[in-house]
Queue: 3 jobs
Job 1
Amino acid sequence: MPDISKQAAPCGAWTSPISAAVVAAGATPLSQLLLDGADVYWLAGRASEGGRNTLLRRRAGQTMELTPAPFNVRTRVHEYGGGALLAAGGTVWFSHFADNRVYRIDGDGAPVALDGAAAAAAGPAATRHADFVLDAARARLVSVREDHAAGGAYPVNTLCALGFDGSEAVLVEGNDFYSSPRLSPDGSQLAWLCWDHPRMPWQGTELWLADVGADGTLINGRLVAGGADESICQPEWSPAGILHFVSDRSGWWNIYRFAHGVTHAVCERAAEFAGPHWTFGNAMYGFRSEREIVCTYIEDGVSHLARLDTASGALTPIDNPYQEIKELRVVGDTLALLAGAPTIALELACIDLRDASREVLARSIEDLPDVGYLSVPRSVSYPSADGRVAHAFYYAPQNRDQEAPKGELPPLMVIGHGGPTSMATSTLKLATQFWTSRGIAVLDVNYGGSTGFGRAYRDLLRGQWGVVDVEDCVAGARYLADQGLVDRERLVIRGGSAGGLTTLCALAFHDVFKAGASYYGVSDLAGLDADSHKFESRYNEYLIAPKPQAAAVYAARSPVNHADKLARPMIFFQGLDDKVVPPPQSEVMVDALRVRGVPVAYLTLAGEGHGFRKADSIVRTLEAELVFYLRVFGIPVPAGLPPVEIEHLAG
């Protein structure tokens, strides 16, 4: 029955307070949560200060900024960084992005470079550091080091002892990549992860353990777990010095312990207690005591929070309002976490484990729209190609003031996440609500290859990027149309970069979507290899094909070689300074549509690279994309939106 309190208006043209400018204002990035006794530390992005990360500390109810401008707490190890700071005993060590140096803060004092002010003034260091652990007895940190001094095609990665005086000494070398050095509570042993090309860490890593000699070097190194087809994550020591870690040997990232030379499962469950290692320093479990772990795990794409009895393996839920928990830390009875939900933007909260009381310390978005304009997604699973089942979050149109005219079904926008080894989550995103509050449904797809659904699902993308992801997006659109939830004549798909590849392939190789938007989309797969950094330089061997077979597969899957098959209206957005996906990758597709008389719009943005960061660029592209769909589908364009030139579009 129609809601008599709402006005009827065409889907796509509803009036919404979630404007493009509101979306462009964005959220404050919150990351890299740490606990040091009762003190809580975290990083917050400062968009108004060039996007730098600053370190905040919460102590005795007061929040203090410890790194004023120009300090930028960020590292570029593996390019994606993470693990840029350590706090222990009231002292903080952090990596400064501008010069790659490690700085120390004692108490409320000013940051001081470990290697001295004179060295810091000499210019950027050739080494980068991340994922610090304190070795107080030896007056040093242990870190992952990336050495660019040789100036070769790729840097050299090692585990490094970084003295409080700034001295550096290699502890472990020989592997292509390292992460997660963890010192035992008594300082006698060091555990770490390593892996080699062509593997990515979610394919296969090794967990090693060594004794720390009297001179601080490592001796008696031995392999504990892992290999080419087992992904190990987050090694941690219990308070009593028992090594724990997460492994996907069962097909799911579960928690294990290594004691007396034997590995035992702590909790066997068809759930994910870890995520893909794109960045350093992530934590999804921590010890409250020797007997109790506090953990988050993902089932069906949704996070859960629980106590884990290390003896029985029993999980006891902890009441909380969140559906995505990105990371957590535990000290005693205090649990700190970064989390969100469909009506909660990412926030930092502390939970008292004694009574489950919760205090929010920081929010990524302070002023949220009225809940009447927010669409709460529901998880959907649906049949896809070759008998598999795909997963997604479905957002129905939602607006407290307006609704569709009787008998009108909404358009559907399908989105494929980036990565592609990643996942869509249900945490509130204003960029999604921009569409749903205007009467356009959204399907955020966790296609085969996404994380959060086990190893077998993650490996569906092995050799199948550009195939499985596309099939699952196509199947999701068909499924919702068959359910009578959306208008099958107004199905659109959008994506950026890797998601742009999915968009272009869906429109070139399938006839389901009626329009599409490509944001700096990959149209030529071969170009990705030429521009990749060390960490991802062999990623395509997993996603597409090993080198000997790659050329033929690249040619078959690259939309640039099938531009003649594009027959639906498209809009392209391209930064003119993009070095990863340069303008010609978009231009060749635009030209193909022009030649064939297919409606096409092309917006270029000066001063933008791979990903749009300027507020006016975000406003311009969002509004242009909206106008494009409205005109393609013959929906009246509301006043105040800018004109968009669409070639070959009648009327």
Job 2
Amino acid sequence: MEETIVMFPAAGIGHIIAMVELAKLIQTHRFSITVLLTTGFFDHPSIDDYVRRISAVHPSISFLRLPATTPATFETAVSVAAKGFSFLKRNAPNVATTLTEISKTATVKAFVIDLFCASTMESASSMGIPVYFFFTSGAAILSLYSYFPKLHQEWSVSFKNMVGVELRVPGNAPLKAVELPEPILDRDDPAYWDMLDFCTILPKARGIIVNSFEELEPAAVNAVAEGACFPDATRVPRVHYIGPLIGEPQQSGRDSKECLRWLEEQPSRSVVYLCFGSRGSFSVAQLREIAKGLERSGHRFLWVVKKPVEEEGANQIHEAAKPGDQLDLASVLPNGFLERTKDRGMVVEAWAPQVEVLSRESVGGFVSHCGWNSVLEAVVAGVPMVAWPLYAEQHANREVMVGEMKVAVGVNEREEDGFVSAEEVEKRVREVMETKEIRERSLKLKQMAMAAVAEFGSSTTALTNLNGRDSKECLRWLEEQPSRSVVYLCFGSRGSFSVAQLREIAKGLERSGHRFLWVVKKPVEEEGANQIHEAAKPGDQLDLASVLPNGFLERTKDRGMVVEAWAPQVEVLSRESVGGFVSHCGWNSVLEAVVAGVPMVAWPLYAEQHANREVMVGEMKVAVGVNEREEDGFVSAEEVEKRVREVMETKEIRERSLKLKQMAMAAVAEFGSSTTALTNLVHSWTSFS
């Protein structure tokens, strides 16, 4: 059956985009992707437009709408988060039914869910489907949420009432209790208790995928790795940092193209860009203060202004901004502002193509609400920031941006309502645009981000390991080993062993004393020796510690490496450190070893491989054969040890293999036998009348 990954993002375009960006990466590893979408809460036409665009460009990513679900009603006023969490919990039965249906026609290799969708974990786990959380925020917020159950035990009052109290969370700077993310501020709100459940479940997942990279938040990454933020430091799920993942550039309508053209006309690093996310809005009074500050700063600006909230406070969580939102700019901005600043500023209503804006050479600073997607987009573009958090986890993000990353300056807000004065806006815009150090630090972090997603970068390696393909890691390991010191074991795409046979191989390798690189595929159910099995592929999941002898991986970690399911065999055999190959005698593998000059241990499993062994051992004289138990082909640890030693320590077989390599090279050289044969074949075709 086809193998697929099923993903379930929380409601809302931001969560969906982040999950789809992950899907784009995973699909390159030969998996199809099914994304489940809810219906009935935070629905918006922009979601349908986005789904159509992705489906057209990425046919291996499919979207499946769950049946319409009615949000719950509450007797008392509750937060938007509480309504959203209740809605997602109501979708759990729909998700379970859908997973069951998908499983009838495909093998679900993993179920990737948003933290807020934790209520669906139990049904997937009961079906034997590995569950992974996709954490769309960074490592610092992962540490905070993982530590939340402990904070809950330490305090008996709502954090929103703990004015003046700072909390200590592993991997984070001191956090003001009143500035924690809204869903965990108020014990009287159902969202608080939902979050407690979610965060308690978090460590029980097979793994956690984080949209960050290790070099960006080292303090939080270390705290998570050490288990300092989890209730039980000995039971920490594997965490995969695979970012930065950012949305693909997109344009929408005339205004977006106009602002990009305007940016192209401005001098290098001269424009400060202001945008506060899809759900953040300001009062008219706050908008006018921002305008005054921008005008006084003297700097060029591109400012995205959303329809203001009714209240006269500073800001408020608002419905998603979108192209087409109408507002009369002249009525909400200071009298004459647009006219006075028309030669150095541009105001855009509701929305701008942010990824493209930040990539423009003219943009030198970004006043941001500290949403994690925006932070990553600025980091990738090398643009320093003014940190102005509004809601959710943004206050905690600010501490990381200013304190650890050192790519942002923070605004000082009025304590009672978060209002920011024109003088403060002017000061911070000047600071971010005129400070050499923060600009240089931002460019350095950009280079680190690019390195993380490069061929051998930390995020690329993490994604490779998540998909079960440790190819780059194993090649790096081979480069570090002495010449001809490693025996390589791989049994083809369709050969597998029982747990009992795997353990015998492990014992033989350990006793041999030789270095090894061993490709292990998911074992067969039977306790015999081997069996023709479905093709091994990246993403096959197995718990190595449970199928290998107790302590084997730890005892051999300094001289051996075990890779799950697959390795890049041609590249492995070409490495100077490889001195032997335990093979299933598939003809492609035989030829690859001959070309590389690597002697073999012949262990045939199926098809023509037994006949191949006779040629390899008897005529080629580049292999030694294993002795198998007659009734089932089982091979003892003693036999494995003996044959590994023989192929690695016998001078004659090594010399014969090198000689055959030279013969192979000669055969395909200009006047070699194979080249001549191919020439004659082609000539015979062209000579037909």
Job 3
Amino acid sequence: MGSKSRRHRSSILSGCVLLVGLLVGVGLVASWGTREWETLPPAAGVYQKNGQIILSVPPASGSPGYEVKVAREPFRVTTTRGGTNVLASSPGPARFQMRGSWYGSTKVRGFGWDGKVLRLDLATTSPGYGISYAITPEPGRYRTTWSIRGTGTADQIGMVYDLRPSGHWYGYGEVEPLEQPWPLSAGEVRRGKSFDPSIYQVRAPFWFTSTSAGLWVNTNRPMDHSTNESRDGLGRFYIKGSNVYNDVTFVESTPRAVYDHYIRVTGRPAKIDPSYEQFEKPLWNTWAQFYRTPTQQGVVGYAEGLASNGLAGHAVQVDGGWERRRGDLSFDPARFPDPQAMSGRIHELGYDLGLWVGFYVEPDSASYAEARQRGYLLPDGADRSKPCMVPTPYERDSALVDLANPEARAWYEGKLRGLMQRYRVEGFKFDTVFFDKKCAPRSGLTQADYTRIGAQFVDGFDLQGAGVRVPWWGSQRYGFAMRQMDKSTDWRSLQVAVPQALALSTIGHPFVTTDMIGGSLYGPPPEKAVLVRWAQASSLMPMMYSSTSPLGVTNPSTGQTNAYDEETMALYRAAIEEHRRLAPYIWERAQEAVAAGEPIMKPLFFDFPREPATYTVKDQWMLGDAIMAAPILTPAASRDIYVPSGTWYDVRRKTMVRGPAVLGSYPAPLGESPVFVRQGNLQTCAAMAAFGAGAAASCPVAPGP
């Protein structure tokens, strides 16, 4: 900070209204819970200019400097980097709802700076409430913590931002099964959606922008959020049932640096949960082939058809419907008369065996009476004398096993281990929630605690590449594979699957996969081109998750059948083989994800942040830093392809292409899926070798130690 700013700082400290005692007294500063905040920025300071209070933070620790500008009246907060706005609140952004009525901040009544924290006293639209507001700066980020002064507990408390000064917004995770705006701010996220640490949708309270700012709401409480609802250009970030709001704003030079910073604070994967083979080969799951009506004969025939036609896979997983009732954890004898024989045959064919399970217990299941009598089920939030009944996918409302009860956990695990031993079951697809907001938690536990306990429980089993859907910040530490919400069987679903995979990847989950190739949401059997194009796109992602057999499928609800031809099978087999050749390259990227939190599948702007065109590309992606996928996601046999800066090897044409450029109407018949390899990158050689083009590669030598 310059000498002029230092002089201003001196005058401020002597002349402003100091409110430090008041603000500390109300418990303004929340616990951070990490050593990341121990390093203070050198020479951060505060000065006043043009009626604003300005907190200036110089560059440090590889992060750029930034300023936080506080307008006094109306109260407003704007973050700048190099004189450019990167994040801006709306006027009166600190808002809260008390007993059904909304109130908001209006003006700054006084402020104080102690060399570490800028503290503000804010007036509100109600004379009965005030706000104690604090900004704590760090290199590349600052923490905002504020609390309400007054009686009562707020229904909601949070901040409102103007989306437009920040360019494009990303983050949040999954929006809907068939809806994923990319950028997020190009569509709408409406308030009222489930958004808490125990939801089924994989979402996290983290957002970032094309201006290289980021926002992490540091809470484990339920939230309410909207992005551009009714096209109003606003982002609302509210915490429910609290009088304290806490978020972190990241200010970096690129969006990728914002992501890296977020992962550095909240945690990178501690391990690679899927095995190498689960990256190398598809998982074949029976759901879209049989839906809720699998049979022993059907499953064996399914596996035999795959094996006899060279359709590789590491496991055949029997999805829902193998039990008579959910929670039985035993095969329905009418449909599976000899499970041991089925298991033996599947293993003879070279596949592991897996089963769908959840923590759901239907009231008329064989386990319900025992579980209820012994207190193994989560109690209802309104009446603790009875089990909490929660909605379940495609079935009746069910009770939930209380995994926070050690005896219940041991009981349930014993049933799973029994299945494994009795039938040689290698793993499970846990398709479940661990808690529901209708239920009553055990004393002292929160929704986030149940998610943690559930994740730790399933971590003791082989998830067979299907992973488990765990929401909220920090869940990426488990290193699970992350599959998407169910998709339908049409082109729109395939088009949504790509940005949804990017959304999951950029909130911290590197081991992503789409929903089952071809879809799984009870639609008609996918047409040939949808199935093939989906397989081709998935072959250029970290993992392949298969279900619909390219030999043919019949929808059990409608009887509609698609008997695919030999070409369908050959093209699907080719996609599997291409993915197998990429497995060593992908495995190296998986190791990087554990070492540094690096995504495997990422948007183009992560590698090319200075190229504006990359920020709205939603049907191309980088696989690592050397491979660019540009698959066909429509019925057309051609597409426009954006090629970023540099020299690229066109794998299908076997030619070099110079970017930046747009390849208009690039032809790609059904047998081809466009893919390019970036030259001169440290990953180039491995990528070129995977595509059998090693001789044409430009391979730099990695720098020495």
